[in-house]
Amino acid sequence: MTKASLRVIGLYLLISVVVFDGVLRRLAGPVAANYFFFVKDVVALFFIIVGRGGESDRVRSFFRLHGLPLLMIALIPPCVVQTLYLDPILALFGAKQYLLYPWIAYAVFRVMGELSLDKFERILKYILFLIIGTSALAVLQLELPSDNFFNQSVGGETMEDFSAGGYLRVCSTFPFVGQYCYFLNFTFPFLFCIPRIRANASAMVSFITRPAVVIPVYLAGAFATASRTAVWGGGAIAGATAICLLFTRRWIQSARLVAFIAILGACTLMLNVFLPQTLAGYSVRSAGELGYSHVQEMLDRISYMLVGWISEADVTIFGHGLGTMSNGADQISHAAAQIRSGGFWTENDLASTFFEGGCYWLVIWMGMRLFVIFDAIRVARSVRTGRMAMFSAALTGYIIVQGFMGTLGIQPPLAIWFWIAVGLNYAVAMQDANATAQFEWENHLVRISRQQVQPPSPT
Fold this sequence. Notes:
Helices cover 72% and strands 1% of the residues. By secondary structure, it is mainly α. It has a domain of 172 residues. It has a two-stranded antiparallel ribbon.
């Protein structure tokens, strides 16, 4: 087996492990489920290792984020030393949150940027099929009893207490609703690559992946979660995509985006008629109460996420320990469990980074993310093909939203999706550059052939 094949297998495996994490951990049982928590890290490490080495100078120069993980490795030691005093295991776990996942971006770029176009599109089809499968299961969960296998937590308990107005907040194949929402946000840009996928697909794939199927199914899954992260997250990505398209002067693609948003609205109305149960939980959560509208609640949450937490922050230079606020840290570290006793949790990423790494790490971590965002916009501007440009702009929209607001430092699944999107955006640009070069070369050959067959002019 070649290393190129191992890279492709590694990518499929990484995506599959994160998507089916909840099913695997439920099947493993409450005790073994804690060990499965780290399977995605092992797979990510394998994928990163096989994704390196043997690249050409063109590939190396095309990807501009090589130095970021190395820079973070060089700058993180003060925070690691600070955490070592609390718990050596926590120091390793916390450093992993920030240092492991960024390498995924380059591995994804290597895999998808160097693939032939049909194999590149095959991976996109797989993700579209995952959208359909996970959303179909989410809708089915609404009809299943609360003690059904799929409606139980990874610990085996019913999730009835975690409901909205008596309606279950389903999580499909994922362990928690939040992780399903992260996947839905990540796959929102893939709705824009449907025309590209269907152009060269078989009759069956073309039918399954038609917009009239994928878009309503995606929306059904998003609303079935009854989560603002899934619904408002998609809206935020669409808004960021619009900004990216306008900034890069893609007027035709901007018009297509407006049409796409109109289609989303029409599909939502159809769901309300034909599958009202999918919107029931979200309708309860978005109804507002005591004169406090849902929109105002969301704006207040966003305001607190960006600046409101500052008034409650405990100012330190190097923080209180990397990983203390990360998902699962309290299960492996006594120090993290003590800090989070009584339900204390910073929840949003700015507050979490400031608590874990202090002023020092907040500046480094957010500075790195801003660099990734601006470079993603640059990559989107370089894409010339219409359909590829739309997909790249949507990926950039996702990178903008999650780069600014995503809890990348405390939620491993979200971090994995984010860095896959970053690498995929580069791969889209490289596939576009290859296709453009091929098109120009073919045109050049046509011009030469025409010149050769042109009859000589009479003297």
